[in-house]
Each structure stands twice: as C-alpha cells, then as structure tokens.
Amino acid sequence: PRQRPAGLPSPRRARRSGERCCPRQSPVTTSRPGRSPPCPASPHCPRPCPATPVLPCSSFVIPSITVVTWNVGTAMPPNDVTSLLHLNTGETNNMDMIAIGLQEVNSKINKRLKDALFTDQWSELFMDVLSPFHFILVSTVRMQGVILLVFAKYYHLPFLQDIQTDCTRTGLGGYWGNKGGVSVRLSIFGHMVCFLNCHLPAHLEKAEQRKEDFATILHMQQFEGPVANGILDHDLVFWFGDLNFRIESLDICFVKYAIDSNVLSQLWEKDQLNIAKTTWPVLRGFQEGPLNFPPTFKFDVGTNKYDSSAKKRKPAWTDRILWKIKPLSKELGTGGHQPSQGVLSVSQLCYCSHMEYTVSDHKPVAAIFAVQFASKVDKPLVEIYVADEWSRPEQAVVRYKMAVGFHRSSWDWIGLYRVGFRHPKDYVSYVWARSDDGERCLEKQLSGISGLQVMFSEEALPKGNGEYILGYYSNTSSSIAGVTEPFQISLPRSEEGSSSTDSSGSSSEEDDSTLVLLAPKSRSPSPGKMKRHRSRSPSLAKFQGLILRPSSRDRVTSRSPSPQSRRSLPRDIPTIHLPQGELGHRGVKSKELGQAAECPEGSSFYQTVKEQGGPRRISADSPLARADPRNLGLLPALRLETIDQALGRWRESADQGYYPCRRMSPTSPSGSDTSPQERHSP
C-alpha cells in the first residue's frame, strides 16, 4: 500500500505544490518585487514579473492563482480558450488554482430553463478544457448572467475546505440580478480566501452608484462559521469583474491618441477606480497592478476596433482584477510578540488583456498571482492507502484513517475517479464509508495506527486498463477530504456473447448498465442515485414467470439493471388470451388450468382444456398455467402477449386444426356463426 510517514508530504506532492525547503535563509518579502524578464506566462503580458521568491521552511507557495474576468455580452463560447487560461505556455504545471468570473452570460428565459436542466455552455467549455490538465471544479455560483467558477488541481482538494457561496442582487433596487456580485469563499491550506465577481452599474456618471452597490455587496454577503463571516474578514480577497469604471475629463480623441501612441500612463490618473482607491474608505487596502494593456471596452464585436457606432463610447478599463490582504490585528502584536513578516503575501506575476478574443464588445482580462501561505495545514483530513495496481477484484481494498476532530457523516463515500475527472461527483463508482457497517467497514491496524477498510465489489470496478484516483467525499463539508495518487486498474473485459445463464456474466452486465446510467456526463451525480434499481411494478416482480411485452424504449435500452431483465427471453413462450367475458360464461377455473398444467404431455406447445364450446389450448410449460390471472391482482381482461415466435407457432397450430380462444374486443360479435378463419384473423 501507498504509505508515507505522517506529516511528511510525498516528493511528488511537494514538487507540485511548489514546496521548497531552504535552510539557513531568511524569509523573502514578495510585496516589493524586483525587475526581471517579461512574464513567461503569456506573450500578451507586457509587464515584467518578479523573480520567484525563495521561501523558508516555515512557509510555502502555491505557485500561481490565475484570475480571469470577461464580460461575454451574451455571446456563444469560442472554440478555444487555452490562451486565455494560459495553458499553452509550458507553465501549466505551475498553476494550481483558477478563478473565472463571467458577466452578461445569456440569461433569457429559454436559456435559463435549459441551463436549469443542463450545465451552461460556458461552464461546460471550461471544464472540458481544464480537466485534461487535472483541474477540478471546486465550486460554482450563478446569479442570472453573472457566473463564478473556481478550479484547482486535484491534489490540492483535501486542503480546500469550508467552501461556501453567496450572491447579492443590486439591479432595480436589489430585485434584479443583472447587476450585483457572486462569491466563493474557502479555506486554502488553513487560510480563508474569498473570490468576488461583480458586475456594477454602467455609464460615466454612475460612479457614486457603483460605490454604493459595492458597499451593499460587502455588507449583505455573510458566511457561516466561526471565522471570516464577512468578505473583508478573509485573509485574502480577490475582487474582479466588469466594474464599469470609466475615464474622466478626457475626450475620446485624446484617449484614442494615447492608446495608439502607447502612452497609457497619461490615462491612469483620470481612471475613476484609481481615483476611488485613494478617496473611498470602502476601497482602502485594495491593490492592483499597473494597467499596461489597452482599455478593454468598448469594441465592435468581431474586431479589435473601438466603438464605431453612433454612440462612440469612450474606451475605458472596465474589466479589472484587484486583491486585498487582511491587515494584521493590533492584538497580535501585544505582549512582546511581534508577528513574523511574510506570513501571507501576494505577488502579481502577470496582468494583461487578451485581444485575440472578439466574440464580445469586452476583452477578457487575466492575472496570475504567487501567494505565499504559512504552512498551517500540511496533512489531509483523511489519508487513503491503496495498492499500486488492481489487477484482480480482490485487490480493490481501500484503507483509510481520519484525522482527530474530523466530522464524519454516515453519508460520506469514497469515489473512484478516472484521471481527468471534472468535478467531485464525476466518479466511475463509489462505496459508502460507513464505519458502523460491520460487513463493509472493518477495524484494521495500519502500521500501528487504527484505521478503516472498505472494498469495491467486482461489479463496481471498471473493466480494462486505465489510471484512476480515489477520493474521500465529506458530506458535511461538501468537498473531497482526501485523495490518492494515480494508480493502475487492469481488469479483463467481459467476453462478448457469454451465456445468459452465467451468473457472473449477468453480474458484470448489471454493473455495465449501472455505469452507463452514471456516466461522467450525468447531470445529477449524487451517490444516492446509485442504489440498486428495482422494478417499476413491485406487484408483478413477485411472479418470476410473468413476462410482459416491453415498450419500445425498454427494448432499446433497459432501465433496470436487474440480471433477470438482462437475460434473453426464452424461445418457447406462448401467447395466451383470457378475455373476461369468456372466463365468465365458460367457467374456466384455476383448478382445471392446474390439472392441464400437470398433464404429462409437456412437450407439446398447447395443452387441451375441456370446454363446452370445444377444445381450448394453453401452454403446459408456462408458469401461467398454474394460476388464474384474476388471482394475481391483474385486470381480468388484461391481454398477455410475448414474442413473434409464439405467433408463428399459433399459426402452425391453427393449420393443424387446433384453435385457441378467440381474441375478444369490445366491438367484436360474440356469436358462434363466425367462421374459424374470421375468428382467428389478426
């Protein structure tokens, strides 16, 4: 099993998390970066980037947190967003979290109804693009056209806890969500971080309205928990979105001249947000990198040309990304104890726009940050131990142990994920992590430490070869509390054309059908949906011999993964008709049917039942011959039919002179003057 000493991260996780151990070196303050070559993250970023800081043993860096904001103007997603997310620069392995804020996503009534049933196209696009790079959707929140998505590398998931979301409407006096803010807050390695995506009122003269709306958002959004109840109570806040701040006092001709001449610094001092940061108390402490990219609003859609319409709006930096570090409280410095410098610091590595995207009248803006955290949390809440490879079903044993103080729930589960999964519920199969289930969770001794054990059934395991990851999902925190490194599963695929009477074959088929129902594209991946599917007619399921004709939908894809429903139908199944009227006046009793069923001539397709109107034939080898349908709780006039082969044998019997009972209909005559050919015509 994959084990390591407690508290000591594996070399792979240390390398991915950017951990460095540098003895005998003092902390480096990252708030005053020196000059270095241009940012390697993107060719579109003109700003020089600070050198990567060398960190002491007492702290570590998440190499980068990427923040993206884009007002998409109700447009459809483009085909490619790799350059926007800085995935094509060779630096992808250094990125660990990505926060994406969208504004003006199409929220018309027809689109909202569709998005309520299915994931919206923008979220699908980002999940599809980021999942091959091992980014997992941690959380998402939407308020009409304002969407916020937070992604992280899968091996960081156990250290992302206390995830909560909130939203505040400010449009139409707080009744409409076209303007406002949405937020995702979470604990990252023990530090509280909040991502806030806002869409504030437009137009040059609405600066004071923007100030009031932002103050309202900060006041209204409250989170549960003992710490960081408000947005500004978090250790680190990223504020971004279409903030709609404009350029004052300068006419459009001078603004365009400054842009064309690349003298953007002449526009900075007239930028409303730059002015507000020095005059508005609510913005005290917010920082932003220099605006070394052209204004991102307003462009003619499909071009890089500024507004050429009759309105000729003045270009402006409406799309912004800011951050704020919570100041140290005065109480921490009392008692002769001075807090260490560099406990939490942020360096902006890149701040740029992406002119290559033309689907909207706004240009997207991206920023990359290096965040230095103190090493408060270096051990996951749940540690999972698993073999390097599962080549046999009996090897699918999972051992795990929980940290002291971990709030376990009876609804916790361990999911099996393919490498490249998209979100925590995008699993292949799962097993409940109930410690009170004596058959599935056993107390074990793991290297002298008490732990728990569960086992995946053979039916739940994927067939074939592939790399997989195990993750412990905590229902209390709605997040993954522990993951493994990728391991191999190499199980033989079930042979095609196996006998339907083979119980093991039917079990594997049952598992395959379950996996189809729980494919990664499933919109409702709750583990509760993985309970064994039962018959839709519980009263009929008691009679194993009763087989009804399936509907067209059931003939294409079985909805029930029961092994009995997956078996092929027997060939010799008769068609038996027991009309209500005929049963009433001819006096056919269940006792006579039972006597006919016990007739030794079991090889014949029909058995004769003596009746006043002549011989009548029913099947002797069918269990239906032993019971009267009226005693089965069915409708007396219910017509039971089977496959077409029975119809063929019915015709053969008719050619030999044996005529089964007539098919009765409400409009058919009941006299005896009907010829046999007419009575038995389809």
Which regions have little confidence, pLDDT < 50, spanning 5+ residues?
A: 1-38, 46-58, 330-342, 437-449, 496-525, 528-613, 622-639, 658-682
CATH class of the domain at 64-110 and 117-328 and 342-372: Alpha Beta
Q: How does the helix and strand content classify structurally?
A: alpha+beta
Characterize the overall form.
globular
Radius of gyration: 35 Å
Largest sheet: 6 strands, mixed
**Which percent band covers the strand fraction?**
15-25%
Measured between the Cα atoms of the first and last residue, the distance is 67 Å
The largest beta-sheet arranges its strands as: 3-4-2-1-11-10
**Strand segment count:** 23
**So, the CATH homologous superfamily of the domain at 64-110 and 117-328 and 342-372?**
Endonuclease/exonuclease/phosphatase
Question: Mind telling me which CATH architecture of the domain at 64-110 and 117-328 and 342-372 this is?
Answer: 4-Layer Sandwich
